[in-house]
Amino acid sequence: MPIYFVHIAFIITALSGVPGLFLRRGSLIAQRISVAMMSAGALTGIYGALTTFFSQTSSDMVSFPWLNMGSCYTGIDTLSAFFLIPVFLMGMLGSIYGLEYWAHDRHPSNSRKLAIFWGLLVAGMALLVVSKHAMAFLLGWEIMALAAFFLVSIEDCNRESRDAGWIYLISAHIGTLALFAMFTLWKLVTGSYMLQTVAESSVSFAVMNTFFFLALTGFGLKAGIMPLHFWLPAAHATSPSHVSAMLSGVVLKMGIYGLVRWLSLFPNPPYAWGGILLVLGFVSGILGVVFALAQHDLKRLLAYHSVENIGIILMGLGIAMLGQAGNQPVITVLGLSGCLLHVWNHSFFKSLLFLCAGSVIHSTHTRQIDQMGGLSKVMPWTALFFLIGAVAICGLPPLNGFISELFIYLGLFNTIATYPGGLVAAISVIALAMIGALATACFVKVYGAVFLGLSRNNETGHFRESSIVMLLPMIILGALCIIIGLVPVLFTNILAQAVSVWSGIESVSLCNPAAVAPLSTVSLVAVVLVFVTGVIFLIVRNLNKRTPQAGTWDCGYAMPSPKMQYTASSFAHSVVSMFRWVVMPREHKPHITNVFAESATFSSHVNELVLDRLLLPLSNVVKRSSGWFHWFQQGLIQQYILYILIALFLMFCTQIPFKELFEKWFIH
Amino acid sequence: MITSIIHVLLLLLMPPLLMGIINKTKAWFGGRVGASFLQPYYDIIKLMRKGMVYSTTTTWIFRIGPIVTLVALLIAGLLVPMGPFSAPVTFTGDLILFAYLFGLSRFFTTAAALDTGSAFEGMGSAREVTFACFSEPALFFVFLVLIKISGAFSLTPMLHGPMEGFSVAIAAPVVLIAIGLFIIMLAESCRIPVDDPNTHLELTMIHEVMVLDHSGPLFGVISYTAAVKLFILSTVLLHILMPFQLQSDWINWLLQIFGVMGIAVLVGVVESVMARLQMQHVPYLLVSALLFCAFGFILLVR
């Protein structure tokens, strides 16, 4: 039954942008219709997903005819339902946010395009999550990839947007290519395109490893695992903020969904897979956060944090794979609960942070952190929600990030205690601790430089708080972060059912992370922490109602100015210089020759590790060495049609009976 | 119940005494009489009765920062056992909560410092978060060694591990993590050789410079919190330095009290005989703490 709700939701959301085509450009009514359709579809979908958890019935399948393939199937189980909820939730919240952020009357040229592809993006993800058959999966995957391409390059008048869009498109299709190879191999080995567990004996070890690396490439490109993340920062930074929130919060998770679903088809994986995922996880985690620290652009910074969080999610998955390999249910449950809960958590707090960043950019019209400052006075609510997101993403108690990291830590400790050696797990613990400390450094930097202190911008007059339309999605996401942080027990049953489907452990109560992690005590401590802090804060505030105010004490300096504040770049400088060997920041320092120095400028920037230092130089080499090929490719349509004709002719030539002709002419 | 009450009383009342002992030790090394042991208590009480001045730049973050820090550290203090007694709050994985409560307090201390918009405080908080990138992993290495020794994931059995299952095999790792933890303690509670709590308004400062604009009761809270942090970390260290217990309960409590006081004397001695390190050399010290703990772990893995 739930699957029909998801199908209805799929149709409504996919069509949500269509009515706009029949109304005039820049029509606000068109936007309201599309938001209403999107919300209706999303609520239907969320209802369908939630009934999956509470209906207790086994998943029902729906079949569709597919040309030359027989039938293809969709069906919903608790693991699909778990991923559906963020998809639909963000689809709805993002479109509501867009009512003011990307109002149709202020963006008449591209807002209809945005509405159509937003609907298709949500529908594509919904389809791929519920598909049980490779064809439906690939269809959903491609709808998602193409819709996301059009959303990234929505402002195609900007060169920056176009470039980001092209790089995204290329990487998305390399990923799809790997998936094509993987599914073809799957069909060869198992004889079916169905995504079902197969007997171990029918798949040889080498083939299994091929599957693993193809899946890692295909899904890893989408998820943004460290060496494959190169498309991610630019795409997330240049698109509109609610699109970035969707891309970072939800679309990346589709890569994780693919990986999680695919790995569930192998109930007895080798130990090495878990180890590889752990190593990739902590490398992505540390490098992601270090590169984030070095950024000057608010949205690029948040984009690199997605790489970090994908790393943490992968570590959870790696622990679960180690648990499966050694048949240790406790480790599997802790690892996968951490992985899945972090998927939810990241989609909530990262979307929240991107929406807050959008609110800031909407008001200040810049993405440069060093031109902001003091915004919490003019935008108090945005500042509050950004703070909630920041504390959550650093994994600090009492918010939701802590709960998922707690599961992952406990999974790692159990791994160390259970398996001999366990050196990789030990390094992962240290890496996770370091990621936590670095993330704290990064978000103190962002929060301090953007919202605290004094404004570094001269045009503070027109800065204002966003309206309730933009604040409402932030309120909902912030509330989710707080609820998961304070009472995680509410969600463990949902987690347990998803874990049970993934791991094949029949008993749901055995899969409940609350049985192995002390969640009630943690939530008690969190509530006490919040309550006591609140009470003391109120006491202090009431005791000092008329506290005198004065300027910040600047050691007696006569003329302090906002420009003298510590900037975000200088804040991060000491950490970045410790990681100089990988970040390699470029600094353009003034060269001072005279005794009385002239006015000078200083700037620094950080290149993308993979894209700018590896792929672009490499593609330049390829471009230079293959210049002769332009002789074949001159941009004439007629010429290309000729090539097609030649190709067809050559194909027909295979039908010519050369052998017979040869015998006829030369032998006789 | 009685143990919990004594635990909470010691946690709330004893910390400023450690500061008094450190100052007395330093005075003794310097050939001075020095202030009374109880001087930190007098200071805090005096601050609590004073008025406050807020900077016009600041927001509510500035006010709530010291309070979050205090509450987070007091809760962390409830997770650490004293002597052979169990901690008032103990559960599987409380060590993670312990470390992350330190992280929470760091987040709000540094954010409150940035709220003033002063370059000095920005500098202090930048250093604080930078050094945490080493001290936090090092702390986790200490915990990993204790997990290997005790096989438990909770602070009470972990810290009692060296006492209960003492053998020659764990002696070397325990010594190594004791050295590592001592360095972490000095760094986290901002003592020499990482930070100098006496030189106000120097560019060499970390902790003191972050709280330049706090005054009156909030500054009292900050001074008290600094003492609590030292007390908690020295309680952890004491378990590793003294892995034994005596028969009677009250002797064990006295052992705990005098042990922590002994660590305060040790900190005072270090402060008297050493100079503060150059700022760019501090990371080396913290990396060496990390390496001590790593070697301790490797000795146990084999």
Key words describing this protein structure:
heterodimer, A: 668 residues, mainly alpha, 4 domains, two-stranded antiparallel ribbon, 25 helices, 69% helix, B: 302 residues, globular
- DSSP helical segment count of chain B: 12
Fraction of residues of chain A in helices?
A: 55-70%
The H-and-E topology of chain B, N to C, reads as: HHHEHHHHHHHHH
* Low-confidence runs of at least 5 consecutive residues of chain B: none
> What's the shape of chain A?
globular
Give me the side-by-side strand order of the main sheet of chain A: 1-2
Work out the count of structural domains of chain A.
Answer: 4
| SS elements, strand count of chain A | 5
Number of domains of chain B: 1
Q: What level of helicity do the residues of chain B show? A: over 70%
Please tally the β strands of chain B and state the result: 1
Q: Beta-strand percentage of chain A? A: under 5%
- What is the typical, i.e. mean, pLDDT of chain A? 90
Largest interface: A-B, 81 and 71 residues
Shape of chain B: globular
In whole angstroms, how far apart are the ends of chain A?
73 Å
As residue ranges, the low-confidence spans of chain A are: none
* Largest beta-sheet characterization of chain A: 2 strands, antiparallel
Q: Would you write up a description of this structure?
A:
- The complex is a heterodimer of chains A (668) and B (302).
- In chain A, helix 6 (159-190) crosses helix 8 and helix 12 packs antiparallel against helix 14 (380-393).
- In chain A, strands 1-2 form a two-stranded antiparallel ribbon. In chain A, strands 4-5 form a two-stranded antiparallel ribbon.
- Chain A is 69% helix and 3% strand.
- Chain A is mostly helical.
- Chain A has helices spanning 2-14, 28-55, 78-101, 111-130, 134-152, 159-190, 205-223, 232-238, 241-263, 271-293, 298-326, 329-364, 375-378, 380-393, 400-418, 423-451, 468-486, 489-503, 513-516, 519-543, 568-578, 580-583, 611-625, 637-653, 658-667, and strands spanning 61-66, 70-75, 549-550, 586-588, 603-605.
- Chain B is mainly alpha-helical and 302 residues long.
- In chain B, helix 2 (15-29) crosses helix 10 and helix 4 (60-79) runs antiparallel to helix 5.
- The mean pLDDT of chain B is 91.
- Chains A and B meet through helix 14, helix 15, helix 16, helix 20 and strand 3 of A and strand 1, helix 4, helix 5, helix 6 and helix 10 of B.
